[in-house]
Amino acid sequence: MRDVVEIGLGKTAQRGYHLDDIAIVPSRRTRDVDDVSTAWQLDAYPFGIPCVGHPSDATMSPSSAVRLGQLGGLGVLNVEGLWTRYENPTKVLEELAGLDEDARATKRLQEVYAEPIRPDLIAERVRELRAGGGTVAVRVSPQHTLALAPVILDAGVDILVIQGTIVSAEHVSTTDEPLNLKEFIADLDLPVIVGGCTDYKTALHLMRTGAAGVIVGIGGDDWSTTESVLGIRVPMATAIADAAAARRDYLDETGGRYVHLIADGDIQTSGDIAKALGCGADAVMLGEPLSLCDEAPAGGAWWHSAASHPSLPRGAFEVAGEPLGSMEQLLFGPADEADGQLNLFGGLRRAMAKCGYRDLKEFQKVGLVLDR
Fold first, then answer.
1. Percent of the chain having pLDDT more than 90?
2. Which of 131, 169, 321, 368 could form a disulfide with 205 if both were Cys (CB 3.0 to 4.6 A apart)?
3. What is the average pLDDT across 225-236?
């Protein structure tokens, strides 16, 4: 039974758990690490590792998205970012990378993102991604989906990601025509990933729109200010487990249609990745960890997409730090520190092997324990 706490007369709250609150319990069997598979497939597109690049300009440029694809993950470019506002945003990114702790970084982000989005650059960036030879995925916000979708679809993407801080299947508006996700997705012949969401009901409703994948979480990390600005925060372990329950019920409801869950938030180390998958996620969306690789376009600086909102930014700017190594080293090692920030998916493979599981689907059944 769910742990519900009375916080006052007439008001209760469900207890939630962060990834730091739980730990993985090994089973009676171990397995050779070379016999473990981290392969993952979304619709018709296979990937070697369950890694989706967070569509922040700090981490995902056309070249870094292509590189992540070459290494087995899925790079996602933000079509509302700097790469579709500037012909060559390199100088802007270099300036942002050079900001120090005393700079008014949020104001500067708002200024550089005030440049209008250019449809011709959307098509150009998609061509650059296509030339890289991997799966082409782009992100658009729910607010701009109807306006930008014709350009995106004409450019020819493989996967469309509709992502906001909180996305629901039923948006109510008396001033604008809301995006009807179910009708929009039904008219497309490509897989769509939608999110974020943080609870069972919203996850189930998003699955019923026909989405191939649902993003769980609001991208919360040490630099997210969504809780401070909006008061919204749901611990990731609980959010993933609730969404996994919704997936199970939707699987029964549809007679076998499986929707993939992508965990976005509170994930910094290989242990966090293992625990997120153990809670029921199929893949993780990496943001800040990827900002620390040599290929990151912002040179180690980090910010969320919502950090540049013109009227209500929700994310602090992290000044550039020293890169930890190449993207390949960050994902596959070797690691020269014992903090779990390098060899992220080598760490996942090792965790799966220590617990005796062959693949990611099996690993979702791993035992968990509360240790806080």
1. 77
2. 169
3. 83
- Asked if 269 and 339 count as a contact pair (C-beta separation under 8 A), the reply is yes
Q: Which fold would CATH assign to domain 19-370?
A: TIM Barrel (3.20.20)
Residue 91, token pair as written in the block: 């100088």
Counting Cα atoms < 13 Å in the Cβ hemisphere of 24 gives: 26
Q: Which tokens go with 37?
A: 């598979």
Q: pLDDT, tens digit, for every residue of 153-196?
A: 999 999 999 998 778 766 655 556 678 899 999 999 999 999 98
Residues β-bridged to residue 8? 11
pTM: 0.94
Please name the amino acid found at residue 188. L
How would you label 244-280 residue by residue, b for 16+ Cβ within 10 Å and e otherwise?
bebbeebeeeeeeeebbbbbbbbbbbbbbbbbbbbbb
254 Cβ neighbours under 8 A, 6+ residues apart: none
3-class DSSP state of 176: coil
Are 52 and 284 in contact by the 8 Å Cβ rule? The answer is: yes
Establish how many alpha carbons lie within 13 A of residue 139's alpha carbon, considering only the half-sphere containing its beta carbon: 29
Q: Is 43 left (phi over 0), alpha (psi -120 to 50) or beta?
A: left
Q: Report the candidate in 50, 72, 4 with the shortest Cα–Cα distance to residue 280.
A: 50
> Could you tell me the two tokens for 315?
């994310």
Structure tokens at 209: 């729109």
Please, which residues have CB within 8 angstroms of residue 239's CB and are 6 or more apart in sequence?
A: 16, 197, 198, 199, 216, 217
